[in-house]
Every structure is written in structure tokens, then in C-alpha cells.
Amino acid sequence: MKKNLSVLIFSCAFLASVAYSQQAQTHFDGKTWWGFVGVLADDKMEGRETGSTGLRKAEAYIVDQLKQDGLEPAGVNGFYQPVKFESRQIVEKDSSLSLVGNGKTQMLTLGDDAVFSTRVDLAPSVTAPLVFVGYGLTVSEMNYDDLAGLDLKGKVAVILAGSPAEIPGALASHYQSAGERWKTLAKAGAVGIITILNPTSMDIPWTRISLNRAHPSMALVGQEFDETAGQKLAVTFNPAKAEQLFAGSGHSLGEVLDIARERKQLPRFPLAVLVNAKAKVEKKTLESANVIARLPGTDPNLKNEYVVLSAHVDHLGIGEPIKGDRIYNGAMDNASGSAVLLDVAASLRKSPEKLKRSLLFVFVTGEEKGLLGSKYFTAHPTVKVDSMVADINIDMFLPIVPLKVLTILGLSESDLGDEARAVAESLGVKPQADPEPQRNAFIRSDQYNFIRHGIPGLAMQVSFEAGSPEQKIFKDWLTQRYHAPSDDLAQPIDLTAAAKYEEIIRSLMVRVSNDEQRPQWKQNSFFRRYAQPSAGGN
Ligand SMILES: [Zn+2]
After folding, report:
1. pLDDT value, residue 533
2. Of 160, 256, 452, 459, which is most buried, counting CB atoms within 10 Å of its CB?
3. Residue pLDDT, tens place only, 66-115
4. Which residues pair with 417 in a beta bridge?
5. Ligand 1 centroid, distance to 7 Cα (angstroms)
6. What is the Å distance from ligand 1's center to 273 Cα?
7. Pairing of the two strands 72-73 and 217-220
């Protein structure tokens, strides 16, 4: 890239000026970004677990940087917005899970066969019949209902993670969120959920899911945040061990997985076994914080509106060792995104830009615990909720290959997607919709909470074209490093890709800040239903 530019400069005056203007647009070199990643993902930050000293240290560093960049505090206590959590840890020695069928009790091995999910407030004991409900989805917009005709009263729903191809990605993602799922199952009378992971869409191998259960889960303190009230049981099942759930039902898991591979609707039927669960959970309360900063716009009216740039700072902390390493540094997840916020703020200090609307930099906590920091922030925003015109979220954007293709989650949902597409194309990058919609990436990061409050949102990732050799690089990254201690500073990174990504983020922020119109949801977007009535006549 650099080499080509210098050739142009020497070839003729006209081309040289083109090359110059291209260079002038480059505000980033990847190195300052990597410097920020280096601090945030250092072992000293101990993996930035929500509520930990390590995360507090990382946030103190962020606040220092924001001050140096001349940003204004926009939290509750200066830059900080305190958030209260309940932490929940399963005590496995006092917990158990078994299947009862045909007069026999089959004890399950926790960690090997299945794990409890403490995101839900588990009941101390549950005994209930099981019903296999396929994907467990009810999507009224598509006239699709996996629960139709089933008796779920007092029963535990067994779900295979995933969705049929006929349901568009964003819709399928939305209805697979814990809250939406529980709404329909609770209405049908179910008391719990067993989720069998889908081998075709598992990001990480079961062994690591099993190890990760040593990290406590967390919930926001406050009834308003409990979206799974009444759910007594939540269990995640290892697909390699899930055949036993189907014993005596006249069906097999193999048969179900064959249909799931084709992404067709699955059969639904009562299972022949009961589940017997005892769960002992240790609870404690703790406090963490979001960090929020403002860069004021200059237009007398529009400066009261905000373009939000968000990223989570928290990660998984210290946990079970893998290859002797206990620190889950989270360099890409998501020191990398937080570092983009810092680097964009620093670049706007160095080479300011005329901004009509204000920019809001939001560093959230509790993302790894279920998007909790952003859930709190969007329910109790420190600026008026309808003054936030857009959220551009950055989470694990993965500059591990040259940036030629950019995946834009939410690309066709609002004209924010059109803006992002235009910016990417102007920098020679090909935009695309999510190539793997079944991974649910659109609802798996903080943009989703902004969207649920009516704010057009998107997230972008360095990506690959389906079937290209790069696809394997990403797949391998997920398998080997995602949520593992090896997501640390000793991994190959493409700094040029990071710099280009940052340029796209900065350009998009500036563009949305100066647009006459605030971004609007598309007429046919499912997410338009959440828009505030005051947000531009939706
Ligand atoms: Zn993560």
C-alpha cells in the first residue's frame, strides 16, 4: 500500500495530489491503537472481570486518556456511571442433574454432559417432564411457531440452538435472545429450558465451554432488568452427550441434527425422560461502572443530539488455566474495541473535524455477563434517550487479515447501514451483510440494547467472503483463542487493517454527526417497532 503510493507520487503531479489527499485522510497508523490494546490487555489488568480491581484500573487509564483528549465527563460521577450487579456462582459439589426414564435414574456429569446456566435465577430443585421443541421459536411475523400444539405446562423445553433458513437473520437473532425466548415459553407454561448446542454453529469447543463455567455469571440488580422471571431451570447440554435425552422418544438426536443441517423446521415431540435438577448457587452483590465521555458538537441545535460510539471494556478475568495461563486478557475481546474509541478520540484532538452533533464515547461494563452494562446505560442513559441518534458499536472487530471485506451487522435495517456502506466503499472496502447469521452476532453485543431503545445501531467487523481461504483463519481464531487466555498480546495482528477500520469508524462518526437528517429505520425493518415516537416521526 505505502509502496504503491510513493510510486504514484513520483509518476506525475496529478496522481501525486491524489495520493496526497489519500494520505491526508489517513488519521491512523495502527501503532497507537496497538499501544492502547497493550495497556488494556496487559496481565496487570487481570482480564478486566466485571467488578474487579483489574477492570477498575483499566477504566481509570481510559478516564485519564479521555481527559488528555479534552473530552467532557458525561457519566453520573464524572466520567463514571456506577452499576450494581448480583454475581452468581454454581456450587457444583452441592448440585446435581439427572435424567429419569423407564424406572432408571441416569446421573449426568456436570461439565462433561451439561452445565447449569446461572444467568437465570435457578430454583433450588426442579423435577419436570421434557418436551423437545425444535428451535423453540415463535415468530408471529412469519407465521412460524415451534410451540404450536405442544403441551408445555409445568415442563422443561429442550431446544436445539439455531433457526430455520426461512426466518431472516435479524428476526431469528431477536427471538433467540434470552428474554424474548422466555416470554413465549413462559406463556406456554414451561418452567425451564435445556439448550442443546448446535454443532454447526458452536464458536468454541465444548471443553472450553465446560471450563468457562468456573466464571461466575452476573445479573443487574433491579426487577426491571429480570427478563427471565419464573424460569426455574437453565441448562446447556453438550451435543456429543445429548442423545440420552431422546432415549425412548421414538426419535434420535442424529435425525434432528440431519434436519438442522439443512436449516429446516424440526420435528417437536414429548421426550420419554424427566429431568431432576438440584442447584446450589452462591450469590453476592458487587459494583462496577460504565465510562461515558462527550465531545461537544458546534451546531446550536444539533449539538444536543449524540452519535454514540460504544465498546465493552470488561472481559472474563482470571479463570481456569489453559496451557498454564490463567489470565483471560481479552486483547481482541474487547481491549481492541475500547482502544479504537481512545484512538478515535485522540485523533479528533490531533486533527479536529467540524462536528454538528456531539459525539458520545461509551465504554460499558458487564458485556460478557449478558450485555448488562449497556442494558443499564440504555435504561438509565446519562443523556436523553431520544437525543442519541445512532450507536456504532465495536466488539472484537478482528483485524487478523487485510481489510478487504467488512461485515456490517444491521446493514439493511436502517440508513445508518447505507452510510456505513458508502464510507467503506469510499475507502476501497467491500461491505457485506452477516455471512453467518446463525451465529446471532447482531444481538450478541451491546448495539442490541441501543436498538431495543429505538436507536439505529450497527457493528462492523473485519471479515471474509464465504468460501474464501480467510474464512478458515477466522474459524481457527474462534476455536483457539475466543474466550481463551490466548486472546492476548502474543498473537498475529494486521496493524494496517486496524488502521483502515479506524478510518471507517471515524469517517462514519463525522458523517452521521453532520448529516441533515438523523438515521432512520427502514420501513420494513423489524427493529423499527422500538423507535421512540419523538425520534423523527417513526
Ligand atoms: Zn466476549
Report:
1. 58
2. 459
3. 999 999 999 999 999 999 999 999 999 999 999 999 889 999 999 999 99
4. none
5. 42
6. 34
7. unpaired
Kindly report, residue by residue over 147-189, the tens digit of the pLDDT: 999 999 999 999 999 999 999 877 888 899 899 999 999 999 9
Read off the C-alpha cell for 494.
494486521
Please give, one letter per residue, the 3-state secondary structure of 99-144: EEECCEEEECCECCCEEECCCCCCCCEEEEEEEECCCCCEEHHHCE
3-state secondary structure 340-372: HHHHHHHHHHHCCCCCCCEEEEEEECCCCCCCH
CA of 368 to the centre of ligand 1 (A): 5
Using the 8-state DSSP alphabet, how is residue 335 labeled?
A: I
Q: pTM of this prediction?
A: 0.85
Nearest Cα neighbor of 277 from 120, 87, 102 is 120
Q: How far apart are alpha carbons 418 and 456 in whole angstroms?
A: 12
Residue 462 is classified by DSSP as E
> Buried (b) or exposed (e) across 486-524, using 16+ Cβ within 10 A?
bbbeeeebbebbbbbbbbbbbbbbbebbbbeebbbbeee
CA of 66 to the centre of ligand 1 (A): 24
The pLDDT tens digits of the residues spanning 342-371 come to 999 999 999 999 999 999 999 999 999 999
Q: Which residues surround the ion ligand 1 when the cut-off is CB under 5 Å?
A: 333
Ligand 1: distance of its center to the CA of 297 in Å?
A: 32
Helices 415-426/495-514 angle, 10° precision: 130
* CB-based burial label for 351 (10 Å; 0-12, 13-18, 19+): exposed
272 pLDDT band, cuts 50/70/90, is very high
Q: Grid coordinates representing 305?
A: 443530539
Sheet architecture: strand order including 192-196: 104-107, 96-101, 269-278, 125-132, 156-160, 192-196, 233-237, 114-116
CA 447–ligand 1 middle distance (angstroms): 14
Ligand 1 centroid, distance to 371 Cα (angstroms):
10
Picking from 349, 324, 460, 445, the residue whose alpha carbon sits closest to that of residue 399 is 460
How sure is the predictor about 393, in pLDDT bands with cuts at 50, 70 and 90?
A: very high
